[in-house]
Amino acid sequence: MQACAKQNILGLRYTSTIHRVSLPKFQTPFSREEPLDRRVLLIEDNPLDQLLAATILRKNGYVVKIVDDGLDALEQVAGGEVFDIILVDYELPTLNGIEVTQELRTLGFRRSIVAVSAGSEAELINDWRDAGCCDFLAKPYLPRQLRELVNHTLMRRSARRPLAFTLKYTDLRT
What we know:
Elements: E1 2-7, E2 13-18, E3 39-43, H1 47-59, E4 63-67, H2 70-78, E5 85-88, H3 97-106, E6 112-118, H4 125-131, E7 135-139, H5 143-160
Parallel strand pairs: 3-4, 3-5, 5-6, 6-7
Antiparallel strand pairs: 1-2
C-alpha cells in the first residue's frame, strides 16, 4: 500500500492510496468448470512456423506437441497419444499433408484435423476435404486467425459431443 498527497486544479488537497493486489491468471474463452479439450498435434517441418503456431496456441492455454514429419505424427497417434485437434502442413519430408490426413483417418482418428498451408495450395482444398480435413487455414495467417479457428473448431466439436448420462429403465408391465 502506498499513500500519496496531491493537489487538484482548484487547489484542494487530497490523498490517494494505491493498493497492490495480485490478479488471477489470464482466463481463456474456455474457462469453465468442466475441462475442455486442449491437446494439439502440430505437424509442421518449418521451425519458424512451428515456433509461431506453438507460441500462439500455448499463450491461449493449449498443450502443443510438435512433429516435423508425417510418419512421426502417425506413430504418435498409433501409439495411443490423445490429441483433440491436429494441425497439418502440406509440404512435409516423407508424406504430404493429404496423405498424412488419409492415414490418420485410416488409423481411426475421428477428431478434428485442420490443414494449415500456403495460399498457393488453396486449390487443394477439395483434396484436403476428401482426405478428411474439417477446415483450412492459409499461410501467412494472423495470430488471431489461428486462435479463432482452433477455438471455433473445438467448440463446434464439443457441442456435437453427446452428453454422458445413464438411463434406468423400469418395466411398467409388471
